[in-house]
Amino acid sequence: MVKKKDYSAGLPDPTPIIDEIISKYPSKVAKKRKKAMVANDPEIDQPVQANVRTIPGIITQRGCTYAGCKGVVLGPTRDIINLVHGPIGCSFYAWLTRRNQTKPETETAENYMMYSFSTDMQDENIVFGGEVKLKEAIREAYKLFNPKAIGVFSTCPVGLIGDDVHAVSRDMKEELGINIFGFSCEGYRGVSQSAGHHIANNGIFKHVVGNNDRPREGKFQINLLGEYNIGGDAFELERLFEEAGITLVSTYSGNSTVESFAYSHTVDLNVVMCHRSINYIAEMMEEKYGIPWIKGNFIGGSSTAKTLRKVAEFFDDAELIEKVEEIIAREEAKVEAVKAAIKPKVEGKLAMMFVGGSRAHHYQDLFEELGMLTVSAGYEFAHRDDYEGRHVIPDIKIDADTRNIEELTITKTDNPELWRDDLVAKKAELEKKGYEFSHYAGMMPQMKKNSLVIDDVSHHETEKLIEFYKPDLFCAGIKEKYVVQKSGVPLKQLHSYDYGGPYAGFEGAINFYKEMERMLVTNVWNLVDTPWKSEPEIVGSMTINA
Ligand code: CFM
SUPFAM superfamilies per the record (predicted)? Predict the structure, then answer.
């Protein structure tokens, strides 16, 4: 049984564990990895290395650019056929394995999310080119489903052999008369899935946003950006907005349609949940249409209340403010009741989390609410601004990998109906009162002194951290889950939620508290000991006959 550490008087300086971890690396690797590890001090600015290439062989948690573009951003959108141009292996996590939920308006409304569309590239396509096969696949998909849009996603070999998915898409758009567009999101295009987010944002902005200038509907119109409806999170938020009388025009991209992206430029405000994956669209919409954006967080009861209040404050309408307060009072009472029962059981427990590009920050709010302590955290692929805050953006070095991704030049719309002078004025006026727009403070200012921040954590580092901190809970994904659990530490998947959830909003907070109780108030983990430490499972011998 492991002996628990007591950090009630403050966290220990993690420098010795950083030194121990990197002492096992070759000197070049050690030098590079050290820059990705910071003993946090929330009072000062500390640069952390992020969004750089992973060291080959280090066993990273990261995914590829194609995963970020096709899987994350476009994947949850149900009325577009997402056609993968590549070998079938790249589509493994497509067919009936999506974690994002969706709810078509009617039983017969378009929903292609349960399908897997792939050109199933073969060796001969690699040798002779795959454009003909891609055209045939687009025609076949069109004939079978008659969709309004098709997105074509490039996998690694497509870039290597030079198939032009954009030219094919243009040709097919003309031939079939529907919206067809391609993405150069080859897996290797960037250093992680983050590049794929950017490429997806660019593609949607270029080919979809602004295609439908329908008149504005509703008094308070928003888009929710960077909410992907894992475990039904978006449904819980939709419920809250609807009751408050806020019109949710489009969500990027949980429970979404490309149809709604097309008129999503008609809103009054963009609320950004996952800054990493979607800040580009928020910025581009502001540049082109004058629509301001704010950062929100709906993970945790108090964060949800805070974000709802901030939205209501933006619209500055007495009736809306009153309604929002009524919802908060009612929902918080329910949240508090559950929290009061569970908090005493989990208070003081230690959590660590290494997840994606936003959740490793957002979920700290839920742990804080339960009195748990986040001893170490990091993102897989976020950028420095997600750690340190957006004020560091001008200092971020643009390297060749970043230059590899197209940067769109956005100009103000020349349609006076669409340019929102009223919103520009409103933003200026609210800013004078201290209301923050286009602002994200990042993860590090919220973390405790001497907590350990690590970007793109490796397998070796994970093992060492567990040995050092002996945490009560580790949050990561499926690739890490069983290794961590075999060391006697429960792991909560924060990508798929272990098929639980929702965890967003008030109901989500209640679900999460209960999940923590289930996972942490048990002795079973103390009984786990890695069996092969004492009893090797397989003993073998080999005789070589010379
Ligand atoms: Fe944003 Fe995401 Fe995340 Fe992300 Fe992701 Fe995800 Fe994630 Mo997995 S967009 S950065 S690329 S919140 S798939 S829905 S859970 S790593 S923390």
Answer: Helical backbone' metal receptor (SSF53807)
The neighbour count for residue 13, using CB atoms within 10 Å, is: 12
Q: How far is the CA of 72 from the centre of ligand 1 (A)?
A: 7
Strands 37-39 and 452-454, by their bridges, are antiparallel
Q: What is the pLDDT of residues 14-43, one digit of tens each?
A: 999 999 999 999 999 999 999 999 999 999
In a domain, 205, yes or no: no
How many angstroms does the Cα of residue 52 sit away from the middle of ligand 1? 18
pLDDT of residue 546: 61
Q: Is 64 a catalytic residue?
A: yes
96 domain-assigned: yes
Pocket test for ligand 1, best of 255, 455, 495 (most atoms within 8 A of CB): 495
> 281 C-alpha to center of ligand 1: Å?
16
Which residue owns the Cα nearest ligand 1 atom 15?
A: 495
Question: Is 185 a residue of the active site?
Answer: no
Q: Of 36, 64, 360, 377, which is the active-site residue?
A: 64
Indicate if 415 and 340 belong to the same structural domain. Answer: yes
Q: Specify the ligand 1 atom closest to the Cα of 72.
A: 13
- We report the CATH number of the domain holding residue 299 as 3.40.50.1980
164 and 229: one domain?
no
For the chain, percent of residues with pLDDT exceeding 90: 91
What letter does residue 100 receive in the DSSP assignment?
B
Measured from the CA of 495, which atom of ligand 1 is nearest?
Answer: 15
Answer for the pair 54, 62: CB distance below 8 angstroms, yes or no.
yes
Would you place residue 536 in the very low, low, confident or very high pLDDT band (cuts 50, 70, 90)?
low
Same domain, 295 and 414: yes
When divided into structural domains, the chain yields a total of 2
Domain span including residue 111: 65-187
Please tell me whether residues 181 and 236 are part of one structural domain: no
C-alpha–C-alpha distance, residues 18 and 170, integer Å: 51
Query: What is the layout of strands, in order, in the sheet containing 149-154?
Result: 117-118, 81-85, 149-154, 179-183
Give the residue from 165, 187, 209 where a domain finishes. 187
Measured on CA atoms in the order 118, 123, 125, 129, is the torsion positive or negative? positive
Looking at the structure, do residues 169 and 287 belong to the same domain, yes or no? no
Nearest CA to ligand 1 atom 5: 356
- Is the pTM for the entire model greater than 0.90? yes
pLDDT of res. 5: 76
How would you class 266 by CB atoms within 10 Å of its CB: exposed for 0-12, middle for 13-18, buried for 19 or more? buried
